Amino acid sequence: MPTNKIHNPYTVVIDTLEKVGIWDFPIFENRHLKTGDYSIAGYEDILCLERKRTTGEIAANSTEQRFIRELERMTLFKYKFMLLEFTMDDVLRFPNNSTIPRKRWPQLKVTSEFIFKFLMEASVHYGVNIMFCGDRENAIAAATKIMNRVVKDNPTRLGNNGDKC
After folding, report:
1. From 10, 63, 72, 144, which residue has the greatest number of CB atoms within 10 Å?
2. Which ranges of the chain have pLDDT less than 70?
3. Which pairing describes strands 129-132 and 79-84: parallel, antiparallel, or unpaired?
4. Using one digit for the tens of pLDDT, what is the confidence trace for 58-91?
5. How far apart are CA 88 and CA 130, in angstroms?
6. CA–CA separation, 30 vs 13, rounded Å?
7. ∠ at Cα 121 (102, 124), nearest 5°?
8. How far apart are CA 67 and CA 63, in angstroms?
């Protein structure tokens, strides 16, 4: 069972633009990340974690050139993930549970099929690992496992910021 009490022996970097529902880590710092929402101090050039809270958020991002440019920048990272706090079923049921007000649904140009296609293209074309985590707690647990693996696979980078593994 996932828990919000995560132990990490490194400093998690949280982008300053990340404002709503920020993931909790015992050791963290808020700092501008050019690409992504989360990384680790000393690993910012190889680890990029992009978080999406809702299908409404990914629906909006899927039509933004700003986000396409972010995906293009993500190709440069050795470890790149998009962690979704929702399920594939949520995508297929879009706009239900999307946080988009029902009165706006008739004007939506984005469909569930479009979102699914966009996510698959992000995976295939940009090499981004897409993870349907289901909820916030599972996304935090997945992020922690990814960060632990990155640190384990690249231990010489730790220490640049005074942390110890």
Report:
1. 10
2. 1-8, 158-165
3. parallel
4. 999 999 999 999 999 999 999 999 999 999 999 9
5. 11
6. 6
7. 150
8. 8
Structure tokens belonging to residue 143: 């992020």
How big is the chain by its Cα radius of gyration, in Å?
16
- What's the CATH fold of domain 35-157? Rossmann fold (3.40.50)
What span, in angstroms and rounded, lies between the C-alpha atoms of 30 and 60? 25
d(CA 67, CA 70): 5
Q: Which amino acid is at 160?
A: N
pTM of the model: 0.89
Tokens of 144: 């922690």
Q: Kindly state the tokens that stand for 35.
A: 């690409």
Cα dihedral 116, 120, 125, 128 sign: positive
SS (H, E, C) the chain: CCCCCCCCCCCEEECCCCCCCCCCCCCEEECCCCCCCEEECCCCCCEEEEEECCHHHHHHHCCCHHHHHHHHHHCCCCEEEEEECCCHHHHHCCCCCCCCCHHHHHHCCCCHHHHHHHHHHHHHHHCCEEEECCCHHHHHHHHHHHHHHHHHHCHHHCCCCCCCC
